[in-house]
Amino acid sequence: MRYLLRQLGLYVLAAWASLTLNFIVPRLAPGDPASAMFARYKGQLQPEALAALREAFGFTGGPLHEQYASYLAHLFRGDLGVSVAYFPAKVTDVLGMGLGWTALLTGSSVVVAFALGSLLGVIAAWRRGGAFDTTLPPLLVFLGAFPYFWLAMMLLYGFGFTLDVLPLRHAYDDTLAPSLSFSFLASVAEHLLLPATSIVLASVGGWMLSMRSSMIGVLAEDYVTMAHAKGLSPLRIMFHYAARNALLPNVTGFGMALGFVLGGSLLTEIVFSYPGQGYLLVQAVRSQDYPLMQGIFLTITMAVLAANFLVDVLYVWLDPRTRGR
Amino acid sequence: MALKDSSVTRMRWSRRHFLAATLLAPLAGACSGRRGARRDPGGVLTVSTEQQASWVRNFNPLLAPGNIRWPTRAGIYEPLFIYDTINGKLVPWLSTGATWSPDKRTLHCALRPGVTWSDGQPFTADDVVFTFEILGRHKALDLFGVWSFLDDIRARGADEVLFSLKKQYVPGLVYLGHQPIVPRHLWRDVKDPVTFTNERPVATGPFTEITVFQNQVYELGRNPRYWQPGKPALRGLRFPAYPGNDQATLALLHGEVDWAGNFVPDVERIFVARDPAHHHYWFPLVGGTVMLYPNAARAPLSDERVRKAISMSIDRALLVKVAMYGYTRPADATGLHDGYARFRSPEAAAVGDWITHDVARAGRLLDEAGYPRRADGLRASADGAPLTLDVHVVTGWSDWIRAAQIIAQGLRALGVTSAARAYDFSAFFEKLQKGAFDLSLGWSSDEPTPYHFYRDLMGTATLRPLGDPAARNWHRFGSEEADALLAEFEGAADEREEMRLSHALERLFATRAPVIPLFPNPSWAAFNTRHFEGFPSARDPYAKPSPYSAPECLLVLTRLTPRGA
User: Fold this and answer.
1) Phi then psi dihedrals of residue B46, to 5 deg
2) Which CATH number fits domain B78-187: 2.30.30.90, 3.40.50.1370, 3.90.76.10, 2.40.320.10?
3) Same domain, A124 and A175
4) B241 vs A169: CA distance, rounded Å
5) Which chain A residues are Cβ-neighbours of B399 within 8 angstroms?
6) Residue A315 forms part of a structural domain
7) What residues of A are in contact with residue B52 (Cβ under 8 Å)?
8) Chain A contacts of B144, Cβ < 8 Å?
9) Shared domain check, A39 and A174
10) Nearest to B429 among A31, A270, A280 (CB)
11) Residues A103 and A198 in one domain
C-alpha cells in the first residue's frame, strides 16, 4: 500500500510539471491565432478582418503569472476555455467530438496488437528455431519498419480505392445516423477494419519480439525444467509457468501504449479521415489554438499518468515481490 | 485445477472465432459490391471546399469563413450585390440597384420587393440597417472594415436604404454590397452576436434548412420560400468532411464529389483522363497575383534599378512550369490578374521591360547601381561585403517554396548571394508585416477594381515605418503621384474614368517596379458532370468557378441543375 501511495505522490508531481509545460510551450511559439487563421486564406481575407479576428478572440494578454494562475484555476473547475480554430465552441465540446473515436480506434488496435504480438512471441519462443520462429519475426519486423502511415496509405489504396471493398474514410457510413442499431455498429466495425489493421501490422512485431526474448530467458529457468520433469502438459507450462512471468516487461510497454492511446495515431487518422483526436491536434497546432492544444495535451497527460498508475497496480498483482516492499 | 484447464480451452475456442471474424469481414464487404459507384444523388450536390476532420455547427454569417460552415455567408444568407469577377459587373441581389448622390457621399440602395425570410417574415430595409448597426457595435464582426468610411445608415421606407459616407469612396460600394444581411426580428434578441452559433438559421438564401448535421457530414435543404421562382433546382447540398487536400482529391477521383475547390496536381492525367466525358476543371487566373516583395525601406532594394535587375534575373517561364504545374502564366509588368483584364493597358505593360528574363541586362543594371562583381564573382554591397538577399517563404507551401528556389537560383546567377528561407506562417507573416525581410513572397489584394490593388502596392495611406506591423504595403513603397491618382479614383464618376485612372496607375507601376509580379494565381475548381450540369467554364464564364469564392458561389448555386431534370 505504501508503495502505491508513494507512486501516487510521484504522479501528482508529474501532473503538475506537465501542466506547467503545457502552459509555457505554446506561448513560446511566434505569432497568434488570428494570423494563423489568416494564413489559411492566402489573402482571400481583407487585412481589416485580421483586426476583427483579434478582437473576436479576445487577446487580453496580461502578465504571464496572472495568465498562469487563471489557467490553473480554470483547469480545476474543468473549464478549458473557448477553442479558436472552432470558435466559439468550447474546448470541452470539441474534445468530446474526437475522444471517443480515437479511444475506439487506437485502443482496440493497441489491445489487439498487444494480445496478438504477445501470443505470437510465446509461440515463437516455445518452438525456437522452428519454421514459425524463423519466418514470422523477420516478416513482422520488416512490416514494422515501414512508417505506419505508409502502411495505412497502401491499405487505403489497395482495399479502399483499387479493390473498392472497404470504405475510404470516416468512422461510419455518412448515410447513417449514430444509434445503437446493428447496421450502425456494423458500419463502425467495417470502417474500423482498415485503420486498425494498419496500426496492428505496424506494431505487432515489436510486441512479439520483446515477448519472445523475455520468454526465452524464462524458459531457461530451473522451475520450467522442473515443470517439464513433473510431466505437466506443455500448454500449461507455456502459459502458466513461462508466459505469466515473461509478460511483465510487455505489461509495462502496454501501459505506456495505452496511455498514448488518446494522443491518437495522428497520421492514420488523417489518412482515413477518421474523426478523432489526432486531427484535432494538427488543426490546433496549425491554428495556434492554445486552449485546444492545452485541452488535448491535458487529456493525453492524464491518460498516460492514469495508465502508468494502472500498470503499477497490475504489477502488485502480477509480481508478489512488489507487495513486500 | 480443472477449472483453470477449461479456461484455456475456452480461450482457444474464442480465439478461433475471432480469427474467423477478421477473415470474413472483408469478404462480407466484397459481397456488397462496388461501393465507389455512387447511387443517384437525387438532386443533392456534394461539395468539397472546407477541409476539416469533423464539423462544428455554426451558421453565423457575421463571422469569418473558416469558423462557420460554407456557404453561410453566401448561400444560406445573402448580400445586397454580387460582384462578378469574370465579367466585371455588379449583379443586383437583395438590392435591385444602387445610385450615388451627385457629391458621391450618399449611396441610395433600392431593395428587392417580395423577398421573405425563410420563416415567412418580410425582408425590409430595417434588416439591412440593423445588420450594419451590429457591425458598428461589434468591431470583431466588421470584417471588411466598413465603419472606417461609413458615417451613418438609414432606412427610407421599407425598401430603400441610405448609406452616408465620411468621404467620397466609390470603391467601398463592393464592401457594403457583399455584407450578408441578417433578420432583425430574430437577431435583436441575440445577446452576443460574436459568440452566437445560430444553429437553426433563418435566412433569405436558396439553402436554409439544415437537414443533417453530424460530425462527418452535414446537408442543407432548399429554402421553401426562396425569392427566385423555381430556384434552386438542386434539392440540397451535402458536405462530407475531408481533412486535407489528399483526401479531398481522392474523393473527387472516386466520383464522390460533384464540385471541388481544391488544388489537384497534374489534373489532366489524374482527374480528367479517368472519365473525360464527366470530369472537368476550370482554373481561370483570377485568384490574385503572387508577388515577390522587395523591402523598399532597406538598401539596396530602395533602388528601383536593383528591383528591376532582380525581376529580370527570374526565369518566370521555368517558375510557372516547375512551381505551378503550368497552371498559370508569367505575370506582366502591370501585375494585374485576368479578373482585371478589361482594365489592363497594353501600352502600360510594354513600358515595363523589366519583366522578361535577361541576365545580361540585369547585370548591367546592377553595375550601374553600384554593385559591381568582385574578383570572386560575387557582387559587393556598399561596404564591400557580398550582396546577400534571401527570399522568405512559408513552410509547407510547396508551390511557393519551389518558386523561391528558382528565384534564388536566378539571383545567384547574377552574383547575388541568395537562398530560400522557409518560416512557419506566423513567423513569416510577422516578418512580412514588420518589414523584417529583404525579399519575401506574398499574395496581393484581390478586389473588384484595381483601386485596392494599387493602393496597397503604391499608396502612402497604408505605409508604416519598419518595425511597425503594416496590414498592407508590407514592402513599404509610397508614391505621392499614386496617392493623387488614388484620390481621384475614390470619386470616379463612371467606368471610363476608372479606366483612365487605372491606366495611369499601371503606367506608374510599370515605371517604378514597386514590387516584382511573378504569376497570377488560378482559382481552383473541378467538376463532375455525371449528375449535375451548369457549372461555369471557359465557354460559359458566368462566375468565378471555385466554391470558396463568396459571394460569387451564389451565382453558381442558383444556376446548377440536376441532369435530366
Assistant:
1) -95, 125
2) 3.90.76.10
3) yes
4) 9
5) none
6) no
7) 283
8) 46, 48-49
9) no
10) A31
11) yes
Q: Å from A176 to nearest chain B CA?
A: 10
**Residue A7, domain member (yes or no):** no
The candidate with the shortest Cα–Cα distance to A274, out of B212, B249, B54, is B54
Coil, helix or strand at residue B43: coil
Number of domains observed in the structure of chain A: 2
CA distances from A252 to A140, A176, A299 (A): 21, 39, 20
Residues B425, A41: C-beta atoms closer than 8 Å: no
Stated pTM of the model: 0.82
A38–B429 CB contact, under 8 Å: yes
State whether A113 and A194 are in the same domain. yes
A159–B contact, CB cutoff 8 A: yes
Nearest 5°: the CA angle B329, B332, B336 is: 90
d(CA B345, CA B504): 9
Q: Quick check: is A154 in a domain?
A: yes
H/E element holding B490?
helix B480-490
Residue ranges for chain B with pLDDT beneath 50: 1-37
Position A287 in a domain: no
Residue A279 has pLDDT above 80, yes or no: no
Q: Which of A312, A116, A135 is nearest to A211 (CA)?
A: A116
A38 in the same domain as A105: no
Q: Does A173 touch chain B (CB under 8 A)?
A: no
ipTM reported for the complex, 2 dp:
0.76
Q: Residues near B384 by Cβ (< 8 Å), separated by ≥ 6?
A: none
For chain B, the first-to-last Cα distance in angstroms comes to 75
| Chain B nearest CA to A56, separation (Å) | 5
Where are the domains positioned within chain B? 14-73+240-284+527-562, 78-187, 289-520
- Domain identity same for A59 and A105: no
For residues A155 and A216, state if they share a domain.
Answer: yes
Could you tell me the pLDDT band of residue A30, with boundaries at 50, 70 and 90?
A: low
Helices (H) and strands (E) in chain A, counts: 16, 0
Q: Which residue has the cell 474526437?
A: A98
Between CA B305 and CA B301 the distance in angstroms is: 8
- Average pLDDT for A241-268: 81
CB of B442 closer than 8 Å to CB of B288:
no
Q: Please determine whether the domains at B14-73+240-284+527-562 and B289-520 fall in the same fold group of CATH.
A: no
Number of neighbours of residue B250 by Cβ within 10 angstroms: 21
A221: containing domain: 99-275
Instruction: Give the list of residues 6+ apart from residue A229 with CB closer than 8 angstroms, or none.
Output: none
**What are the DSSP calls for B399-440, one per residue?**
HHHHHHHHHHHHHHHTT-B--EEEE-HHHHHHHHHHT--SEE
> Looking at beta carbons, which residues of chain A come within 8 Å of B56?
86, 89, 94, 97
**In terms of domains, do A104 and A60 share one?**
no
Q: Which CATH architecture is the domain B14-73+240-284+527-562 placed in?
A: 3-Layer(aba) Sandwich (3.40)
Domain of A128: which CATH number? 1.10.3720.10
Please identify which residue in the block is written with the cell numbers 506591423: B469
**In sequence order, which residues have a C-beta less than 8 Å from that of residue A256 and are 6 or more positions away?**
A304, A307, A308, A311
Contact residues on chain B for A239, CB-CB shorter than 8 A: 8
Q: Residue A184 class from Cβ within 10 Å (0-12 exposed, 13-18 middle, 19+ buried)?
A: middle
- The topology under which CATH files domain B289-520 is Dipeptide-binding Protein; domain 3 (3.10.105)
Q: How many CB atoms lie within 10 A of CB B275?
A: 14
Query: How far, in Å, CA of B156 to CA of B341, rounded?
Result: 38
Q: CA-CA distances (angstroms) from residue B373 to B365, B409, B415?
A: 12, 17, 7
> Mind listing the pLDDT tens digit for each residue in A39-90?
666 555 666 677 777 666 665 556 777 778 878 888 888 778 778 778 778 8
Q: Is A78 within 8 Å of chain B by CB?
A: no
